[in-house]
Amino acid sequence: MASKRPLLIPSPRTPSTLEYPSLPTFADLLKPVPEDLNSVSTMDSNNNPIENQQNSEHPFHSSSRGSISSLQSRNSGSGNSIREVPIKFGSKGAESDGLGLSQKEINDEDARLIYINDPAKTNERFEFSGNSIRTAKYSFITFLPRNLFEQFHRVAYIYFLVIAILNQLPQLAVFGRGASVLPLAFVLSVTAIKDAYEDYRRHRADRIENNRLAWVLADNQFQQKKWKDIRVGEVIKIASNETLPCDLVLLSTSDSTGVAYVQTINLDGESNLKTRYAKQETLSKVPEKDKISGVIKCEKPNRNIYGFMANMEVDGKRVSLGPTNIILRGCELKNTGWAIGVAVYAGRETKAMLNNSGAPSKRSRLENQMNRETIILSMFLVILCTIVSVCAAVWLKRFADYLTIIQFYHKKDYSETPVEDYNYYGWGLEIFFTFLMSVIVFQIMIPISLYISMELVRVGQAYFMIRDARMYDESSNSRFQCRALNINEDLGQIRYVFSDKTGTLTENKMEFQCASIWGTDYSSGKSSSQDNQVGCSSQDNGTVLRPKVVVRTDPELQRLLRSEKETEKGKNIHNFFLALAACNTIVPLTKDTSDPSVKLIDYQGESPDEQALVYAAATYGFMLIERTSGHIIIDVQGHIQRYDVLGLHEFDSDRKRMSVILGCPDQTVKLFVKGADTSMFNVIDKSLNLDVINATESHLYKYSSTGLRTLVIGMRELSDSEFQIWQSAYEHATTALYGRAGLLRKVAYSVESNLSILGASAIEDKLQLGVPEAIEALRVAGIKVWVLTGDKQETAISIGYSSKLLTSKMKQIIINNNSMESCRRSLEDAKNLCKKFQTTSSITQNGEGSSGTTRTPIALIIDGTSLVYILDSELEEPLFELACECSVVLCCRVAPLQKAGIVALVKNRTDDMTLAIGDGANDVSMIQMADVGIGISGQEGRQAVMASDFAMGQFRFLVTLLLVHGHWNYQRMAYMILYNFYRNAVFVLVLFWYTLFTCFTLTTAVTEWSSMLYSVIYTSLPTIVVAILDKDLSRRTLLRYPPLYGAGQREEKYNLTLFWITMLDTLWQSIAAFFIPLLAYWKSTIDISSLGDLWTLAVVILVNLHLAMDVIRWTWITHATIWGSIVATFLAVMVIDAIPSLFGYWAIFNAAGTAAFWLCLLVIIVAALLPRFAVKFCFEYFRPSDIQIAREAEKFGDVTQLGGAEIELNQMQESTQQVAR
Description:
alpha+beta; nine-stranded antiparallel β-sheet; 44% helix; translocase; membrane
């Protein structure tokens, strides 16, 4: 889980100089720890390398949302002169010498100057981008050339364009010039119309956005101005609930302390409020009365929405600006009357627009494999053309002396008097032209309609996936989203699933469960939440305040809080809950209820963990009531107390903890710290209360083993001298213009030491509904599920058992190392252990008298520290070999880039399809690395969704998506591709056979219009409808027998063998379709046009009946399209033959009037399809596939009634389980 919160809260003691650190981003993670910082951090005795780069799923870990944005920013060429470094998945690669923006000096080349309230001077030297935005791709002028350029990226389109151009040459004109262009023009037009409509919608949205109104300061008063006319440097006023038109640096707000609350749901999908602050130097200025002037020096536009570095000179004083001083375009102002700011980035230079990009384009495996068959068909086409050319060459040589008198050969034109010569170019050129003419005649061997058919089928498949009620999440009111239409069929071939844990397998809705305080475990007794209502309310001016969520409490702990306030144990309990209430960035908001005298406090925060802890503190009587920029108010056991926030050190991925320094009502200064146990025990004074420390460690292990998320709480009281030293260093760090983040980290390291332990908290993140059943179904389906999490190993293992990822029968191999050599030894030992388990299993089975080998299921558990040394090293291959021997791989304490590295480990070494699923920004790199990426619409924003190919609300929907829709999509698309190859090839071969009987002159009996309409109109619609609607098995059967999913993994419906079998069938059907009419009308007086119409109708009926033989689920739409296409073909042929100006006038009417015509059609159909029917019957009867067995079970009843079929299904399931292991 990743969390992001508002940053440092200004201290009232240093109102004019305070500054806040930026959130750690990948740029921060990619840099080495400064030398001066290393001297401070030596207190960490277990200097773990993963600590320096890990962004794990901990409640207070920094967000990798900033990481991804920073990474994009550095690669976007946005002007930041930061040396690019290669991305590596191990921490060594990650900790290169790249500098983060927060540590880089803003020099003149990398800065832009904004003169406050002086847009003319701001834009005098450089004309900055206006605020008009454009998300549309095309303009009226550029649409046609740009759209055609994009479409012709498909090589097949270039091929058909060349064919159409060749047909325009008089020497090569086989078809009419208009008819030859029609198929390509139709496909291009359909795509262009779709693109034009989509772009029109973008233009309309842009126009609405650009014409919105905002209040802009002009002539000492705020006037309304269209968004598109706003310029950098102008002062803008935003009212509550309004959306920001551009990126603004806050100058003042309606709050006296300069706080503004914003909602970034339009930016990253998060609905929780964030706090932003205005500087004290500009807070008191009234724009309508006081002249606001100054200059802001900031970094050039970049994509990092969680980082900002600038300084501001105002009234002769320079102050620094950070990410908490800027509000980005698209954010909404909430719970704040108004806010005034100066525009620093506008239009396309705003961070929101720079991040306005979709998921990376991916191509499906079937489409890539289709290229192989396309090349084969292209070679076959060349062979056919070569045969025709060679035969034509031989024929020309043999009859060279008779060319002038042979009728129909174009050397002499006898239609005119006197007789004239045709353009005869000689033997060599005639052969060359014959080859090119052959290419034109046989062009549809490469099915141009297949591409647009695939697009339409994918749209139809996506429609039914989106409308599937079984993938609708009621809790979030979200439907399934199909964000990448071109990889639907890949869902049916997945072999590996890489899953995040927090928010993906779990709900990411945290609930406080228990605590260990001062060595005592308070996890035994629980009172009901109703019993706590009275004890957790507060009186404020006659109004009763109650927390929105009340957690269950421990009765003993409540008794101690009430009766033992003055004892040492009571004081530690008091400090523990005070730390929970104060050490956070939660914003309390009051909400009305049906009772006017009662209000609910809703704690808004970016971390569900923090919300759970604050609600727990409120339930125990420590209710956070108010938070401002300099203080917090807490109701402590019925007494309202104010605590001054003297400083707050945000969580960062190096320290893995956060701390707050409070000025308490008793005039003491206390430091409260909470964080991960791995980092906290390094800064706790072990010479104090060793028994308490040992007991807390024991309780932590107990909590983790039951799947709870833990935090350690510590504190110490600062003396006056310690506080003065810290305050001086803190002020220096927060006002530093350069290296601010590093200095703040150093100050935090220095003060967070010699802590006294208070205890530990335990929060439950419950499994989502149906997760154990989903994982078991995926495992039975032959899909390996790997979990990659940033949580502790004990927590991850516990969740593994509860989710059925781990079972009691599995042998566990755990690798936790901190050096490359130890990792190498562990991998070798683990591989030997796997062989030992395998040998033991074989011996045990043979001793029991059974045959075969049953593999002992093995689970590999490895931590991020070990992966530091394994990834990007020679140890990757041994890890991959070991992982392949394991049924389950569980990676703990891993960073975002390590997640992507694990996916790459499998993806780069195997042809198996990979799928990654996650809900947070720290899962983005993993999602984009996998063949298929799925985002969960959860509690951590929408960055995972925005980067994904598909999105859904719950992990359990993955079963329906893969086992049902994935199976259907793969089966349909695979069949459609092969069918399109067959459909076009059979027509081409009929034309080829005819060429052999016409002196290789490439004249054709089929009219040019029928030839062009064949693959576009005559036969295209049925295959599209079948590919969208047909179902080889029902949903119930697919879910009941997950091993049926293996058909896609084994590529049963699309492979090279099946392609060649299809081509052999095509060859036979073309022979039957051509030679039966030829023999029937041999030596007759039938005209060639009538025979051509017979061949056309025979092939159309043949391919449609071929399709009908394979349809499983008939619907009225399927009937209408298949039989309707045959009827439409008859009508089209009659219309074409009824046009006097076209060749073959009235031919169909003459031919269809004889019985021989209809008899030929019947014989062709029987002869062509009989071998296919016989082979299909034999295979399904004697060697049925798993799918055919299941289909018979659906047809005749329950599988258990089928005897042998049941046995085969069981064997299939066992074999699939062995593959999964």
